[in-house]
Amino acid sequence: MGCGGSPGRTGQMDGHPSAVPPDLASIPDAVPRFEPPSRYGNPPEYEVFGQRYRTLVSSDGFEQQGLASWYGTKFHGRRTSSGEPYDMFAMTAAHRELPLPSYVEVTNLDNGKRVVVRVNDRGPFVAGRVIDLSYAAAHRIDMVEKGVAPVHIRVVTPDDDEARPLRVAGTEILDDPGPKQPDSAETEPRFVQVGAFADRSAAERVRDDLHSLGFADVRVTALSSTSGTPLHRVRIGPLEDPSAVRDVEARLQQAALQDYRIVID
After folding, report:
1. pLDDT at residue number 189
2. C-alpha 220: how far from its chain's center?
3. Taking the model in full, what pTM does it have?
4. Cβ pair 84, 120 in contact under 8 A
5. 72 near 135, Cβ under 8 Å?
6. Across the chain, what does the average pLDDT equal?
7. Cα separation of 226 and 18, whole Å?
């Protein structure tokens, strides 16, 4: 099991990206929603390094404390246990027992910072560690440089009142401001971004997979960085009609591709 289906993933910090999206700090939390169980990621039990693990039938009321780690470039673009490509810039995580997918709120006990992530992978398989966060999620709770941090994790659901203020800025959870007046940003073309990769060939494979699923307007765009290594983004669009965005989201969900985000350029 584990990211890419490899039993060898230990959950240890495996490297920083050479190019980071300029909007990394503003990537929103994962939004809890009701989803069917992953057809690939929920065996009743599985074995890694001679250790057997059982998959929980339900995540209701699940809470846990322990060490969190993060995983990055080594697995970026590879298949997760749920069958989706791992995107280190999406708000996701790996857990050994929770049903896939699940949504959890992760609180860094060293600084109180919180993030909501979608669990779509298995791991970490290191004693004492309870969750592996994506690079973006680890960045949100300020544990990237340290590599590990003590955390409290709590399953959240779409009807969880405590999880509704999901947009986090620094350590402060912002209250829902309620309906807002339309502005120019709401009328600008939107893109559905399905991944961002340092390796262009990985981005092109995702693009080709999307073409095979019937998405016609898929493009790979390069974003320059201060390191000189471009980041290759896979995007569907532009989509000028909100209903077109909803249609793309529905089709991605039907294809079990959940780790996407809506962006405006």
Report:
1. 76
2. 20
3. 0.59
4. yes
5. yes
6. 79
7. 9
